[in-house]
Design brief:
By secondary structure, the chain is α/β, with parallel strands linked by helices. It is 38% helix and 14% strand. It has eleven helices and six strands.
Length: 253
């Protein structure tokens, strides 16, 4: 017996049913990029990046390899509250980061802080990321040792431990985190939270010290070199240096 078009549309196994299901599948919105790796750790690296250089990039690469990060988010600061205003406009610093990380599929840029009209507090950024990623997503804040030592001066700094793990990059031969240089109240937090291996860390709350390749490159020294028209080649990516020259950045002390 012939089947009517209406019956075919209603039949769950008919062509109409399959077509409807396929249409529904096509209409499904694309998932968040974070949803692709729900169990993989994500690193967060903030800074003014004024300009970004190989010291930043190598730190992120070594941390990603040591911790097993699926993604490292570079988040340029818009209005950093703990230091003076960046020398270069946010739009330039953001573009330099984009050019610096191009070609590394593990690196991504996040513009949320430069787009935010208010001061760039790390606790706000991590709170937003945690809301996007969920409570079970391992999240690592990547810091240099000098920045970590200043952590108690940051806004709502103790809340950071509830939002992410913290990986501290120390140069080879550096004193351990519990040396005499580490003072209260930071020392007490490290005593409670330091782990020897990332396998012992959960989604947030741990601290780990990682030894890094010694690259003595600073953005301040780079700006001084560029201002006196010296060569900055091999200290930062060529794509970034070309952008600096194209837009005549850092031409004055």
């Amino acid at each position: 017996m012939a089947t009517s078009a209406a019956e075919m549309s209603a039949a769950p196994n008919g062509e109409g049913g399959r077509e409807k299901r396929e249409g529904e599948k096509r209409a499904t919105p694309n998932p968040s990029p974070f949803a692709l790796y729900p169990s993989q750790a994500i690193g967060v690296m903030g800074g003014t990046f004024d300009p970004i250089h190989y010291g930043h990039l190598r730190l992120a690469e070594e941390m990603a390899e040591a911790i097993g990060l699926e993604r490292v988010l570079f988040i340029p600061a818009g209005q950093p509250p703990h230091r003076g205003a960046p020398r270069t406009a946010a739009i330039h610093r953001l573009e330099m980061v984009r050019r610096a990380i191009a070609g590394n599929p593990r690196f991504a840029v996040d513009a949320r802080e430069v787009e935010r009209p208010d001061p760039s507090y790390t606790v706000d950024t991590l709170t937003a990321l945690r809301a996007e990623l969920g409570e079970e997503q391992p999240l690592w804040l990547l810091l240099g040792a000098d920045a970590f030592l200043e952590l108690p001066t940051w806004h709502a700094w103790r809340k950071l431990f509830g939002l992410a793990n913290i990986a501290v990059a120390a140069r080879p031969g550096a004193q351990p985190l519990l040396s005499y240089d580490l003072r209260e109240p930071l020392k007490s937090e490290v005593l409670k939270r330091q782990v020897a291996s990332t396998s012992a860390a959960g989604p947030a709350g741990s601290v780990q010290l990682r030894q890094m390749t010694p690259l003595d490159i600073s953005a301040t020294a780079l700006r001084d070199t560029l201002a006196r028209h010296g060569s900055a080649r091999y200290l930062l990516p060529d794509a970034v240096l070309d952008y600096i020259h194209e837009h005549q950045l850092y031409t004055h002390p």
